[in-house]
Fold these 4 entries.
Entry 1:
Amino acid sequence: MNTDEYLHFLDRALDGMLAVLGELGDERANQAPPFDGANSPWAITYHCTEVADYWIGHLIGGRESTRDRDAEFTARGTIADLTRTITALRANLHKDLDGFDPAAPLTNTPPADYEGPSRQLTPIGVLLHVLEELAQHHGQVEVSRDALSTAPTDAAL
């Protein structure tokens, strides 16, 4: 499997999310759009970094994880900080997938909810799950941008 090609598609999703955040600026990127239960585009993008770090870094790469999934959705910060986080994540993912063997067992056990009813989750399944998450959240960030771009800022209220 060509992991560089796979990582190219993760990069496209992450780059797309960062571009949207750049359009919004730090203030709006940290605002939730006016939908029930919505999260800010910054928090969604941060969540994606944690998804990739946990699923690829922990389950395949064997790195330790102290992930706090609930905190990901209330996280706030600057676009510059998130850009640095994504740069470090990319370097780690390249290391995690160096010598990737799709037939090898996972290094760590995924949450039970992600194990199939008739078989265990495979490394390919982990990679597909991460791609699925980043693709859907990229779209969510774009929809959030559209909603925030038509809503007044907190300062204007």
Entry 2:
Amino acid sequence: MPIDLDKWDRRILMILQQDASLSTAAVAEAVGLSTSPCWRRIDRLEREGIIKRRVALVDRAKVGLKAQVFAQVKLNAHGRANLDEFSAAIRDVPEVLECHVLMGSVDFMLRIVAADIESYERLFFERLSQLPGVQEINSTVALSEIKHTTALPV
């Protein structure tokens, strides 16, 4: 169930999504509040789990991860145990940045990064295709990135 957010909460979230390293005083100034009420709001947003964590966003290309691949995974059986087993195994693959359960002709969509296509090929044959219950994997290589954001439109 969504939590009720007022205009101040939304402004704070927009500012922190752009730069979570800002001090409370800087956030307060940017949204037009004094420091103490702003701090209380940020604290509440964190306690309620709206702000899950604050992280550094790393440029994947600058750290040598130039390939981005989207892979659709189909399992050979659709029982709850099969889904849970695959889900647990995929969490241990660091190159998989996102994993989503889908409805339709495939079961999972993965977003994967690798140094290059050869690195992805090794990952595909040595790990992904060996995961429990995998029947089929269809991979699509991203040529370029048009838009990438982590900021939600609050």
Entry 3:
Amino acid sequence: MADESLDERVAALEERVTRLESAPPEADRDEVFWALEGLRRRLTGQGQVLFTGAVDLPNGEHYEWQQGAVAHGLLDADWSEHAAPYAALGHPVRLTLLRAVLRGTRSAAELQETAGLNTTGQLYHHLKQLTAAGWLQAEGRGHYQVPPGRVVPLLVLLSAVVPTGNRTTGE
């Protein structure tokens, strides 16, 4: 009878192990909108928006960022005052330059080649637009970087237009 009890216990343990091994990863077991749930626990007033991220770039740099805003403040603001940073992103060459810089290309000569630009005048026209809008900054003679406080926001903007992952519940 002791053997039977041991057999039953072993069978029960094997069943539990099988269930554990077939369970979805930890993030999938939790709520799909885990970040949203965290925000809901902290909400005040009429709502808030939040974006956050932790990024390891191909060049080894690591960035973490979180920014939030009260919804009614955003809705009451004059959005036209903030058009320049968006306008600077509205050209394929500028997006190519930003992507190259985030991937580790920093020198003007390399950026010119990466973007397929024929003249340095063309390159500096686009670099000027990006630096004036705050998406790039000069880090030395002919070298550029995306400012640390702009890395995650830039990727958030990109993720807003690239169809991936969980977006919304439709509510």
Entry 4:
Amino acid sequence: MSERSPAPGGLDLVQALVNTVDLESGADSLDTAEGRTRFGIAEGGVAEARELRESLRVALLAHAGHPPHRAVTPLGELLAAAPLVLTVAASDGSAALAPADPRPLLSRVAAAVAESLIAGTWMRLKACEAADCHWAYYDRSPAGRGRWCSMQVCGARAKMRRYRGKGAP
């Protein structure tokens, strides 16, 4: 949907996961072996991946000031099941949070969220305001007030609806 560049750091994983479903068409890449392989999801783990995806979407909608699109398990509850460890490099003493087990998607997402909190980028990952879209995008606007994944598509549609709603000739 979006022509925007990917989110920085580990947020690209979160953004890619949220964007595995096209709400307008209903196409879900987690329905394909290729789509699941991209995230290391076994066929039996699709329901959990979808639950995580929609909980992330609710958080990203909240970042943009929008209500949840549906009831979901709170993201904090899901991420609490993914322990992180603090790693310190012997070479230079740099530290990072990492998943205790890097294989599960939940652990990698938890590490990405933690990394983005430290970097100050978490709140800039948002979901598009358009109800038939909710595509994840990284808001690079100076004020951090982006509303749509694409000004050319979702933004233009919203502005046209607003214009028509005013009773324009």
